């Protein structure tokens, strides 16, 4: 017999699942299994089964025991005067196996065999397949027992994470700890190890975001600050400003390998054969959709890691996604460069310069690059490293003839033997042996296509009462063959509400989705949508690479689009699309309010069925934007393509602070170009002007000054034509900034003066302060310090009235510079000190670096050379971390 306690309770006899009765009877069995081969008293069972026991619990317990005896037979014995005892033989109970593996892991740790320890702890955790309490009516004693059992599992998770961290296996640790910390947000050791894993893999910002999330949970649920370990760890990460040279070796971005990988042995050998030592090794796996190219590439990549240990990069190029444009090589290079430690501000704009920097960063590194779903050679060429120490694995549905030196491998469907082997691996070897002929027929009906065989096998695995012939009958009755027949079988077997959500997912923009966005799409609550998504995941119609985020295989996405088009009339599809875009717009608006509370945004009213996410603080808003970035970009395009232009430009204007903070210039320019075209398509002049302003800012940031000026001048003409003075003011201010950068001082001053006059006329104190600051900058640059000081001090008065700490800090720093120009060093130190304090309070690293440099200059003017040196050392460190060229200038002062 096989007793499964570590998840949904189950008992098998010779592979056949036994019927265990209702929730209370199952609670009795759970208690007996937790104390296998020991007597459990009636009093203990009573407290395990009921919160409020019946008048005569003994009678009820005898009924439950009798029911269990019908399936367990003589295994369940009565111990007169002691209660009941369940006899379990060695190797039958998964909990015993778990405990033995954990002990073996502890022994390996004691022997300093970290590799063996990690393996044993991983095997122990693999015994778990869910939450044991899910289907039980548990009383207080059983709840306590199960809590202790969960505690043992979490301890094993922490021991595994500790061992895996020592071995440098950061990706698996991060994925596991994200999931566990989300499920157990008050367990601080999980958060601590997640922070360590992120920091050691070079993702320092994410490590600090994990601390912020942990702190939020602890404060909200317990009302205290996190413990000393978490606080000290945060401080250590904050103080380790300069990453160590070894950080590069932690960039391991490969997707998870799958345990059920089957067959393809000769193909794996070919892919893993050593290549030439004089050039980059390039291998391309080619074949039809669903044939298993990605799974083979990922398996090969994991086997090749030892040969290429320094760096492993991965990108999905979306070459054949019906709902998404192929990935822009320039955007992929931006992502790779960020992973390789290049700050956003130092990433070049042109494709050629990015490719050159990428090749430079990988030069001499033993690096593996996995490029999945390539559309063609032109998409891949810029992503190829130049060093002979590197290897590239590519998957594509096309033959990539124009790649020099490529080793192509055509991947066909499974052989009959491989298809049956996969069925056996997933559905159970005993079931395949019982009727191999039927198993071969299932493989044949699936067209030997791996995705279809796997889906059929998983369907069998979840229905242990089915025989192989039952599955054959189901497939033949559907009349389909290959993937389509299996998809139909799974889809048609779903209840109506699950079918509806699945097909609506064909409308969802972007790469993946969450319960919240799916809820908006379907007009449900997030709780309802989450339940349905988990069911679809169980039915293997969805994938999940990250806890809480779901995706569709491209064949299943195409199938969902086909079903939604057939089953939902155009008005229903339009409503669903509007709802999900409403959710993205209004959630982005809530995020924007955290990122920049001064920002004035204009968005419409959301559908009443839509419940946008709110954010407790700036860190939470920024984390959401980072996570949803690809979907947000896709949503702007989706809105423009489906006659929802207002959603397109509203979402674009909500995101430009985020794009600016993270230096996502390409996303900023592309999305605002789409939104601008959407505004023009319906003749909305005001929206057109707003998009021209924000597009102009992005163009200015990447030094395309001529194009920026053209945008501002067009916007100014529009706002003057429609009489919108409130928009003329920021347009003039931004135009002045570009003129100032170009050295056109008179033109800049004219724009600033006009903007300031409009701000005063409109009573807009914030805008008046901004333009007064810019006017002050112009006069300070010209050496007119008295005039500049007057403008700055007036702007500071306004800032103190409207409480904008960021802008106030900039002003304080500027005032300090002017006092230096006037040789009043004590006043300079006073103002810059206040600026530095404010920048530190709001967490602005660039502002801190600038004000530290300025403070060093003021202290040097006072003759305090030691104080100046200290400021400049800290300023250099910050500028280097941010990738700012000004680090060299400050280093020169030292």
Could you state the CATH homologous superfamily of the largest domain? Winged helix-like DNA-binding domain superfamily/Winged helix DNA-binding domain
Characterize the overall form: globular
In total, how many domains does the architecture comprise?
Answer: 7
First and last CA, distance: 75 Å
Provide a descriptive summary of the structure in words:
It is a single chain. The chain is 64% helix and 7% strand. The strands form 4 sheets. A 6-stranded parallel beta sheet has the order 7-9-10-11-8-12, sandwiched between helices. Strands 1-2-3 form a 3-stranded antiparallel beta sheet, with no helix packed on it. Strands 4-6-5 form a 3-stranded antiparallel beta sheet. The protein folds into 7 domains: 1-167, Orthogonal Bundle (Arc Repressor Mutant, subunit A); 172-239, Tetratricopeptide repeat domain (Serine Threonine Protein Phosphatase 5, Tetratricopeptide repeat, Alpha Horseshoe); 251-410, Rossmann fold, CATH 3.40.50.300; 416-492; 496-568, Winged helix-like DNA-binding domain superfamily/Winged helix DNA-binding domain (Arc Repressor Mutant, subunit A); 569-701, no CATH class; 804-893, Serine Threonine Protein Phosphatase 5, Tetratricopeptide repeat. The chain is built from 40 helices and 14 strands. Helix 15 (377-380) links the parallel strand 10 and strand 11 (391-396). The chain has 894 residues and is an alpha/beta fold. The longest helix has 27 residues, at 140-166.
